[in-house]
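Lay summary. Proteins are chains of building blocks that fold into shapes, and those shapes determine what they do. In this project we predict the shape from the chain. Here is one chain we studied, written as its sequence of building blocks.
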Amino acid sequence: MTLTVVEDPPEALTVFSFEEIVEEICLKRESARQGIESWDRLHAVTIELAGSPRDDTNWLDPSRVWRIERVSIHNYRGVLNEDPLVLVFDPTPGITVLHGLNGAGKSSISDAVDLALSGNTPAVTGGTAGKAALWDPVHLARGSSSARVEVTLSSGGDRLVIATVLGQTGETVSHEALLESRNGIAKVNLGQSWHQALASHQPVFAYASLERRVQLSKDLATYFEGLLALGGSFSALEETITLRGNASAEALKRWSAAREAGLRGLSDVDKERSTVTTSMPLDPVPEPNISDDKDTWLRDAGLTETGLNSPSLPSDARERLAKAATDVRSSIEEFEKAGTTAEQVLSGTLEQLHSDAVDRHLKDGTCPVCATPDSSWLTTLGESVKQHKNLATLRTKVGDDTKALGTATCELLTAALKIGTQADTTDPINALSSIGQSLLNKFDVARESGIATQHSVLTATAELSDWLCSQGARDLITEAVARTDATKQWRIARARAVESFVTVWEEDGASASESPLWSATSKRVGELRNGLRKRRSISLEGKAGARVKELLSDAELQLKSINVLTSKASMELVDQNGGQVDLGMLSAGQRNAVLLAPLLASVDAGPFGFLILDDPVHAFDELRIDRLANSLSKLAETRRVIVLTHDERLKEHLAARTNDCDTRLVARSGATGAVEVTDSSHFWDRLLLDARAVLDLSLSETGSTKDVTDAVRGLCRMSVDNALRSFVIRNSVLANRDTEADLTKLDAAYTTDKRLEVAKTFWNETQPALNPVTRAERVCEPHMTSWNQSIHGNPQLSDSTEVEIRAARDACKALAAAL
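And here is the predicted shape, written in a compact code that computers can read:
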């Protein structure tokens, strides 16, 4: 997309809230000619997220501003200190300059803050041998196996402590944040909202790092992508749509796989049943679609049949069982009529005994029954068997019919009894099957233990036969035949084949059916992103254009447009005649200004009340340093601007433009190599130097200080007040007090003595005698009345003296040296 710089002041580069996203969705829905349903779905999800709690606290509420208070660095890059290097910053708006020679450790400090906030180390360039990168940073200090960096931010009465730990390879092993509030200390998940804020409102700018990253058009696109980040609300919406869409797609995959398995099962059932069933084949089952209603499809396809999936009983099963029972009953009756009970009972046994004796070649002799010696028992037994030939024929008939009954019960009755046994206990055939099963078991046990004409076998056979001819048995078998009808069983088998598919359909059907809608909704997210990014691009382009114009007006260069595509980006610059100026034509200083301009344009909004700039004047001339200092002084009206530089000109320009400019010297110990940060100047010191200069000039010119008394005493009071304010800020940070609350209490006191009294209560030591505010108060006490009179324009009773300036300096030193 190509955008044109607008003349009207662009809106602030704020991230988009859910409410703004909802408005954009409504606008796009109204103009859409199709796909209304997907816009409705996107609208519904956004409304849902807008009404739900985001993150686990309100610590990243858009209305909150987090200000930097403290930085701790240990074993990171050039910081070789044995103990962590700790820097304490004034969280209120103003400028802090950390200046020092190259190699003193300034970039290590800015990179440490960036690492602590993001938890990410810059990606290495890669390559080996001749293609190995020369300038990739080494993240661990020399000789260290780990590193830890920590940043403390404050907002109101809360503190956010973020720490990153690097392992032996220089990779991040932990990135954690603790929120300290009146409710206690809790671990918080920084989440997408935090990283979106870091990308779109970068609080740390290091020119060397950025120049190293931005070498190609795609690198410039990545840089702008961060500045054009739409915020945590959009990220949450995009993530939710993606997660739900993926879940729906996975549900559809499971549904489709289950459907294919179900259809294969149906095909196998139909193939098997069609070969054994003589009835008309069933109609093919139609293939279901995810949009179909499950119950309607099951009903129309005939897949709702219930019952046992068992082999089909023949329709004449009852008749065949009844005939077998009748035949064996008739045989038993004839057998019983043919002789006495003893003959009936023992004829088979005697015949078996005779057969066994012959087979074993036994002879007449002692009778094995009565033990009579020299008897012809075997001969007598043979004659008895011959005499009962008719009874033997009947016995054989009983045996054959009993065997036939056994065959029939095995083929038919067992299956029928299974149907009844598996039926519900309230089903009448369940009780009938229990009776039949008991008789069948007795029949089977008797047959295994004896021959057909033995009493126990005859009894068991007769009882089973009688039951088979009863009405109860007829009812059971008739119902079993009906329930195992071939067509019915075919339908039951079909229903069983799709059971798993139906279960999956019940569980995943609702989600799977919405997969096309989620897919369409995902496309709407892309359209929404383009629309929101266009709005943000216009704002970024306008603000960056103003910064470019401010920094490069001497060269009469202007930013015409920023073009951001998926894989590349470009910045179009024009000269005073409208002619295009290629980026490759820029000097090193101009290139730095062009890269710095978009970042300065993005920091006027966002959750960070600070901006850290490392070497922002790389290759800048005097004119451009002055213009950058002017821009930074304006930014410092609403945030703490921390500048790390070796350029003394920038330090001087910033100090000249800003009343509240804290300058510190960064140096490396020649003995230990440790990084040391010390105050190089104080605002109170400059005030007292001015007071001494005014006093000396008045004495040399007039011989009196009467005309400058109010000025000198006003400067003395202002110096003490400045030192007192710095003391309160540092004490609050180190003692984990609420800095803003302490400053509010301090500002509520309007005289120096009252302000000192308030500040004394903030001291965190237990020994009141060591309170530095008390020492400062004691030094200032003789002069406070006259200082207050000068500030309020009251007549003076005496002229100012050098003693007052010395007292003010001693009080300021006592306060400055305390922490």
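What the prediction tells us: The two ends are 54 Å apart (CA to CA).
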